[in-house]
Amino acid sequence: MHSVEYYQEKFNEHLASRITDKEPITLYNPMAYILGLGGKRLRPMLTLLTTELFGGKYENAFDAAMAVEYFHNFSLIHDDIMDAAPLRRGKTTVHHKWDVNTGILSGDAMLIEAYCYLESYSAPVFKELTMLFSKTALEVCEGQQYDVDFESREDVEVAEYLKMIKYKTAVLVGASMKMGAIIAGANPSAQKDIYDFGLNLGIAFQLQDDYLDAFGNPKTFGKQVGGDIIENKKTYLYLKSIELADKNQGREIKDLFSIQPGKTDRKVKRVKEIYEQSGASQATKNAIAVYTKKAFSHLDNLAIGGANKEILRQFGKDLMDRKV
To answer: The pTM is what?
Structure first.
């Protein structure tokens, strides 16, 4: 096996070779644009890596990795439209650079192309990949709907939030890895363990992202620290503070989250204080540790070489050791 960086580099080279000018340009240029915005390509990289982890050749997983990346970016285009977001990775979003109708149609085309990439596999493998891909795609949509629903609900519970991030974020990480296992011909038990490794690591990653949004380093975080607080997002931190805070703190944080987004430095400062004082901050760090441990327990179950296992273990550690 190679390093994580090696698979990222090889996927980026392959992606660049597959993006060509096509007609109508008003449909395909927005697709090329969002794919060109960069990102770490973690999901397709994991498909390539996992294929070799189970004895396959990573080159055989390029089309599955492309399907994963196209699906992910389709979801980003549509999410940005739903959120009325002006920026994605510091650049103008597709629907702002073109228009909403273009964003909808180009996103739809990306979803269809994602499925087209799976057609290169033999019938048995194609069936397994497509069944997994369709299940995952529907779950991602369900997660997005839960996220939208939570914006107007005052009774969201921690278990519901965990289900939302599992579907919206983590299932695609798990599926990306299981697709590599399917291509390599791994047995069903190994496929399940590698899926559960990715799933739990994805949940831990999102919880950590919630934590860093409030307590990260503003110089290195890459986006506005406290953004979730300003936008009144009901993250794990918020929900745990409602659960753990005393009556006065609970009432205060609900009042603070009724303030419309704007110049709210005092709000951010006070909410973070309540997160700390109530124990929500520590509870979030504990949850991150729990899901990371779950992920590694599934990795331990895999009957693969120690060196190969260590590459995945180090990837997980690096992902979860972000201090930004």
So the answer is: 0.93
